[in-house]
Amino acid sequence: MKLLVANGYLIDPSQNLNAGKNLLMEDGRILGLLDRSEPAPEGAEVFEATGLMVAPGFIDLHVHLREPGQEYKETIATGAAAAVAGGWTSICAMPNTDPVNDSAAVTRFIIEQGQRAQLANVFPVGALTKGSGGKELAEMGEMKKAGIVAVSDDGRPVPTAEMMRRAMEYARGFDLTVVDHCQDSSLSAGGVMHEGRWSLILGLRGMPAAAEEVDAVRDCILAKLTGARVHLAHLSTRGALEAVRRAREIGLPVTCEVTPHHWTLTDEAVSEYDTNTKMSPPLRTLDHVGALLEGFRDGTIDAIATDHAPHHSDEKALEFDQAPFGITGLETAVGLAFDLVHQGIISLERLVELCSTNPARIFRLKDRGTLRANALGDITILDPQLEWIFDVSRSRSKSRNTPFDGRAFKGAAVATIVAGRVVYLHPEYAKITASKQTELAAGR
Amino acid sequence: MENRFNRKHLLGIRELAAGEIVHLLDTAETFSDVSRREIKKVPALRGRTIINLFFEPSTRTRTSFEIAAKRLSADAVNITVSTSSVTKGETLLDTARNLEAMAPACIVVRHSMAGAPHQLARMCNAPIVNAGDGSHEHPTQALLDALTIREYKGRIEGLNVAIIGDILHSRVARSNVYLLTKLGANVKVAGPGTLVPAEFAELVEHGLRVEQRIEDAIEGADVVMILRIQRERQNAAFFPSMREYAIHYGLHPDHLERAAPEAIVMHPGPINRGIEIASEIADSSRSLILDQVANGVAVRMAVLYLLAGGGRDDMEDGKARQGKNGKRGRKVSKT
After folding, report:
1. What does the pLDDT look like over A286-302, one tens digit per residue?
2. In this model, does residue A362 exceed pLDDT 80?
3. Is B115 close to A204, i.e. CB distance below 8 A?
4. Residues A408, A342: Cα–Cα separation, whole Å
5. How far apart, in whole angstroms, are the C-alpha atoms of residue A95 and residue A143?
6. Which residue, of A311, A329, A362, is where some domain finishes?
7. Cβ distance of B115 and A320 shorter than 8 Å
8. Which residues of B touch A318 (CB under 8 A)?
């Protein structure tokens, strides 16, 4: 089966491509690029993309899908549905499920559930240590064979430098990227928000920026010691980005990601004790937000990831201290990333690099993150000008924990293609295309 | 300045305007007379139910609210919820809905976790009074402290106030800082470095200083407020020992020589004698600890009267008219 994405504007940083061309896919892979003047190949279905940007499929390095074990929050199928609605063709599932993904059996289960859903590609991330307990190494080799793409004890930061060192040394042997949630738990213990003026006003226990910064520095030093590929998850502080910058300067293979909520909101958002502003790492101050924006400009930040963390509304209705950390993010991330484009902080090319090219490289996802011939037919189609409002009651996720309900956005992923198949079409865009086709038909 | 209080809830002092605070204090002053009468009761809230919802044990504050409600002729119901049972199943939301079904005129909430009264206020229709939430605020404590200061000093504006102790965890310190600076006092706070964060000075725009030494905070103070120190803080490594705390951060008679000549000493209670305050000060005429307790009832009567439908429209010149006016209060149907 052939699919032609016609009349779009192709953006592919993997080959410095920036051109109005047609993209032809067959049997789930990219066949090649055609000039717009070339006629559509016989039998090809045509996706009309006039005025739209066509990018290699977006890859979210950091989501929590809750299955197995907490299906009341999210399932792999609902998470994947939210992903494609947000423009993500691939999602990397963190291992803090119940049971923890620390074995090949759980890894295979996650992959199978992902295949059953037939929406986004679901790539499991395996645990670093058994049960993410921080004491014994997990069976990384067996999990790698079963299909994990990285290892991490996300959510339960590796407590000792010794354990992290061994994990890095061992992961290196399987060419696995080590992902760390940088947080010195002794400094952040009991904290529920960023430590600073607002935590003092609200009387809530703070987590100092230093808790993240200390661990980020530790991980960079251990990357040097072990030679492992290290990816620092959802960085939120000036000091952690500075650590990455310095590590890069001396050539260490250290990369990092940032989430949309950390550059969009500050700790002031907590002021009404809305538990949908409680996440870890916490929302920081304007100064840290400024550091993130600098990191986007100067290239320190490699990837945008959502840290999609669904929780049931009953759990979020608890006291601020008791409510769980995290918000959903799959459906709002690309819209929030377009804010950066419209504010002139990043270019469209950089947006694609942050959401597709670099994530594919960081987790070594073969034949993804590019529009080259023979790559997999994962495509994200963007309308930078589309204005829309996020209505959480229509979210594909099972959970509703977002601080962005009712927010207005400019720019969206309007269609998501996975393995050559259109798995999502934005409702606004469906209307637009329908009217365009009517116009075209009338014109003829 | 026109002084009014038209809010639905009393969640904290931070959001109040100076005029609202003065109105609350003026109303409380008129209610202190009631407590001096032989028959300590007015019919202002007859037939109305006040629920004291305590998620954190507190005999003093609960009793104070209960007496205040009874002196207003309201039906006071005490509900004590252990937070451990809450975490097992019943959420804050369930509790709120259950209470709502009982149609209270006002819910007084004490909770060990900051923000719980705010969350209840969003979930309930009934007016909420914050009777202390975690390390956040304790508005009625600040009001009773201010009433006490006004009684002895005749004013708040221009006074120098020192607050000494565990500032970091103290809701009393926060509410007092807001109230006193809004009414024009100069506040200095001091205590061990682990319990007095430097950023605390950014809590308000002006009128607040963080001092390293308690002697510097007390220098020239008209009012010295001492906070209770909790032994748990020693276990969490905030200070080495109660002994060391008593020596370096406890209030001793020689400290008061630095204070203004007529300086008064206050403490929200219950006091740790010989730890944060020397017994000879606690028992001296400078100590207003018992006045604070008495004023607590008057302040809570004023708050309940204003929130539970005592009739905001019944106010004239910031004075509550009692006695027969209580009847008028009942007629006014609010919310």
Report:
1. 999 999 999 999 999 99
2. yes
3. yes
4. 14
5. 11
6. A362
7. yes
8. 87, 91-92
Q: Which of B14, B84, B93, B113 to mutate to test the interface with A (most CBs of A within 10 A)?
A: B113
Domain of residue A410, CATH code: 2.30.40.10
- Residues paired with residue A413 on neighbouring β-strands, in sequence order: A382
Q: Is B138 on the interface with A (CB under 8 A)?
A: no
Architecture (CATH level 2) of domain B18-137+296-331: 3-Layer(aba) Sandwich (3.40)
**Do A353 and A390 reside in the same domain of the chain?**
no
Helix, coil or strand: residue B31: helix
- Which residue, among B25, B40, B48, has the nearest Cα to B71 in the 3D structure? B40
Flag whether the pTM goes above 0.95: no
- Selected from 1.10.10.60, 3.40.50.1370, 2.60.120.10, 3.30.360.10, the CATH number assigned to the domain covering B139-291 reads 3.40.50.1370
Please check whether residue A371 lies inside any domain of the structure. Answer: no
Residues from chain A that touch B202, judged by Cβ atoms under 8 A, are 197, 200
A331–chain B nearest CA distance, Å = 27
What ipTM does the predicted assembly reach?
Answer: 0.89
Number of domains in chain A: 2
Instruction: Quote the pLDDT of residue B59.
Output: 87
Could you report the per-residue pLDDT of A184-206, keeping only the tens digit for each? 999 999 999 999 999 999 999 99
Q: Which of A309, A199, A294 lies closest to A240 in space, CA to CA?
A: A294
- Who contacts B141 (Cβ-Cβ below 8 Å, separation ≥6)? B61, B132, B171, B172, B175, B176, B268, B296
Best residue in B119, B233, B235 for a mutation probing chain A (most A CBs within 10 Å): B119
Tell if the CB–CB gap between B87 and A322 is shorter than 8 Å. yes
The answer to whether A62 and A90 are in contact (CB under 8 A) is no
CA distance A159 to chain B (A): 20
Taking an 8 Å cut-off on Cβ atoms, the answer to whether A197 and B202 are in contact is yes
User: Are B113 and A317 inside 8 Å of each other by CB?
Assistant: no
Which long-range contacts (C-beta less than 8 Å, at least 24 apart) are formed by A18-27? A18/A349, A23/A54, A23/A371, A23/A379, A25/A377, A25/A379, A25/A417, A25/A420, A26/A1, A26/A2, A26/A420, A27/A1, A27/A420
Name every residue in A having a CB less than 8 A away from some CB of B: 196-197, 200-205, 272-273, 314, 317-322
Both tokens of B160, joined, read 């120098």
Q: What is the pLDDT of residue B234?
A: 84
